[in-house]
Amino acid sequence: MRLTRRELLLGGTAAAALGAAGAYELVDRLTDAPTRHFGEGRAPEQHLLDGLRIADDNGVEIVVPTLHHEMVTATVVPKPGLEEQAALERVLRRLEDEYPGTPDGLAVTVAWGLPYFRRYVSGAAERHLPVDRRASATGRPRRALLDATRFPSDSDDVLLEENDVAFLLRSDSLVHIQEGAKTIFDALDGVLEMTSIRKGFAGGGFDGGPGLPKQLATAAGVPGADLIPDGSELFLGFTSTQKHALGPPRIVNFETLGLVDLGPESYFHGGTHMHLSHVFEDLEAWYLNFDFAERVDTTFRPRLAVEPGTKTVPQPPEKAASPRDVERDFRRFGAIGHSSSMQSTSRLQADVMGADGTLYHKGTAVPQRADFNTLDNPFFWSSRPKRDGMAEGPSAGLHFVVFNPSSDDFHRNRLAMDGVLPDGTKIALEPRARGQGLNSVLRTTHRQNFLVPPRSHRSFPLVEVTA
Amino acid sequence: MIGRRVVALAALALAVPAGLTACADDEPTPAAKAAAPRACPASWKPGWQQLANRVKAPVYCPTWLPSPLDGDMKGPTKNGVSVEPDHSWLASFLWHEPPAQDVHVNFRAYPGRTVIPRCEDTQVVAGKVRHRDIPCFSDAQSPRRVGRFTVTPYTVNQGVDQWHVLYLWRERRSIYTVSQHVAKPTTYRQVVANLDRVMRGLVRVGPTA
To answer: Can you give the pTM of this predicted structure?
Structure first.
């Protein structure tokens, strides 16, 4: 199936772009959304999505992601008050009444950026924004929400964004996402000014067939699309949502691991941190320069014995790599694994009794990934096309979305991906060196950190405190 | 990071760019669909015959190459012929338009050898030179029947075949390969279509001396 020119064209106005599906309409044509509508209760946490199916591949449990994803970023135009807060809450509740919070319904996660807290609720933010205990241990207090930074493998032109708010919409139905986004922005017309729309997809191949990434990239004529293995969850050919590689539901809550001091009134109890970035992926470079063994070496761990063609590589807690393992691998093979290097920070290094009463065992993953592939270039729509580097035509990429207990926790993981390990070890790899595998074919364009309040404070948080 | 022999042939850039720009879509070029002649073109034959005689083994002469290449070993798109002491050989054809467009096809054979050859991969990591012994051709795809040949496509290749799609077949206890570079304006899909067309047009040339 090939896309028509019209399907590949970028959206025009914000309103038109919000209602347009573009190339992504194919997702509904290419897949039957599975029925997975159960457990309709809404958790106090916004980042949790109920009813996700667990599939099995290669004997490994996989959390099946929703087919459609959309991130809409915006700035807040006037200083928001109680009226605006009530209006947003009203519309979000209306959507919750209309759709179950499961993949066949609609999940909306509202996340707020530092510009919002600084500009509109600075006094209350000073008092209530959580403080990262671990990051503050050696010096001045550091908030759980920090400005995004560039990492060693980032180029100097990575844009550090300053959006006030981001709405993450997830569903197996494209229509639900379109209606959800439109409903929110219609209701908040004059209050929220859209800055970008980012769309994408994941999975679709766990029950057989080529899967969405391959089908959509092929239809869009993206270079290297034909080389994506059938059934891949993501463009780069490996499954990223195996259960052992994702944090358990509440582990990223601010309060769970004790990394964060919630302040005197625990206003953000049940909240978490979200990092959002856009990354271009050079599929031809990945599939024509790295053979399967080297793709495994640099995605997981050097010299890991994996049957050719495997998409889901087991990463159980007991096999989590330590900084010493990563350093030893580098000395022997001149390469580090993407997963193993990050496991030194992304996996618990000891058993931890969580604030929720759960015993989290050593080796348990902490971050919860919610990333999705995209053909946006780099966004589906932008209010500042020149600044965002908007270009015509589809391009393979990833809208990277991950929940961590704090910005610093995410930064530690991302630094480890570049070989800067938590024990102070610095792997002597050049930025984007071949020995970093994935990093050498990725190019990040945008980054921003956000705070995800609990559901009870998701609408213009702290406005009622300020008022 | 890619060590590739590149020869700029500016004169050709004026003469034949249309053949390349016509390939912008992912469909095989019309020329690729046309029937190929069944004899080594007269002007190309001397070079291929000379090669067969030199390696004392049959070689396969192409009767079609993607535009603007031709299979004349002394022609304007020749990129060199090399023969090793073990009689393995490489014949390369290249058209290059600055800054980054090229059409590059390599023919190889390893007479008397059926095992994938090994290549040395050299990388500088943290200032230290590291050598690795790796297969010259890897990531084999499912074998396919193309014309008279059963070929195995390889998508990750080394040396002058780096970033090429390579078709490999075995015949009379020897390995033969043909590969084309996946480079703008030629897509992966076009390369596969081109290699299919090249394979269908191959003509065996045996040694005569």
So the answer is: 0.88
